[in-house]
């Protein structure tokens, strides 16, 4: 729902335009001068300003720069070419001459808002590298992945919240982007947020934004990530890491489409589709009181479970060949091939870090290899001996495998290298150590 500010000193016109817009589904606020608009409103809360060019005090055109990047539609009683051209030169989105036809105004507003949505979507796309997010070329012929593809097709056209489950590195964000890319919101922004990567004391401000002076150091207003996704899709990765207080505020966005910035008493109305992902057991966290039950059920309208790489059969080789080709292209070197021994090593390895770990191993091999053939040594993945092979890997749980892998390798590599081999971040490695009670070398396990 678009929020529009009308800045007009003539009350009759101000009220008439306000009623017109409200009847047509817009949220509307008003002011009678530039000064009043600045004092009583956060200009960044709006999707459009409709401003009279002649106002008491400062001219309406001052709001063009003050509100940027929010578009400004100029109204003028003086339908002169000079005033319109000057306003457009200063950055006005368009202008309309009074008296104007109501339908003409509504059409112009919709054109401006549609153009702004396209610009936002284009900016979001520019930040992406299509090759890294091939939403139309997700690879997988195994039955589990075919089921995922079918579910993406079913859920993408809807507005339903989706909870994407899977181990670290299975491609949860790629699935979220595929859902967005095949949805009616595909021309609007896709905003991805790693909840675990934001310091706890900044989570609220980052997600919900803040007004100027909301806290020490808040020198200017800030638009939160949720509002940045208005009209589009918000992807909350590692949602299990959100503090309970933030979960309560997020629930309100999901339930009512309402958001309030930190330090503000004003409620904003948003249209955001929320997709969330986690590698943790949310039901268990609910039972333990670490995750809100009501938020869990709001997120779990549709649940997509991604298979681990070791569960995808021949997809492993398809992915490996695709990733090797993509990596060689990016590194500007001729195509490489896996040796027979390397292919066997790929199949034998458990891949606790899933596709992300596979991609890291292949990139390292492409960089370090001196020939056009990738060897087992270049891949650098651990090779089980015969005795280990009989006991492991298919019979171990993921947590048991993680414990075994860490204990076997932590004395020989750094935490950074250990995390890289597992295909996870150092922070995730630390969290798993804490949860499973695996102290780092030289530390005593807390008792």
What does this structure look like?
This protein is of the alpha/beta class and 447 residues long. The protein contains 20 helices and 16 strands. The protein has helices at 11-23, 34-40, 62-67, 81-89, 102-126, 143-155, 172-181, 203-208, 225-228, 244-256, 282-287, 293-299, 315-330, 340-348, 354-368, 376-379, 386-391, 398-409, 415-422, 426-436; strands at 3-7, 27-31, 48-52, 72-76, 94-97, 162-165, 190-194, 209-210, 222-223, 233-237, 258-259, 268-269, 273-278, 302-305, 337-338, 373-374. Strands 2-1-3-4-5 form a five-stranded parallel beta sheet, with helices on both faces. α10 (244-256) packs across α12. The longest helix is centred in the first third of the chain and has 25 residues, at 102-126. It starts with a strand and ends in an 11-residue tail after the last helix.
Features:
five-stranded parallel sheet; elongated; alpha/beta; single chain; 447 residues; 20 helices
Mean pLDDT rating? 85
Distance between the termini: 54 Å
Q: Using the alpha-carbon principal axes, give the shape.
A: elongated
Strand tally is: 16
Largest sheet: 5 strands, parallel
Oligomerization: single chain
Structural class: alpha/beta
- Walk across the major sheet and give the strand order: 2-1-3-4-5
Helix percent band: 40-55%
User: How large a portion of the residues is in β-strands, by DSSP E?
Assistant: 5-15%
Rg, please? 27 Å
Low-pLDDT parts are: 126-135, 386-394
**Number of helical segments?**
20
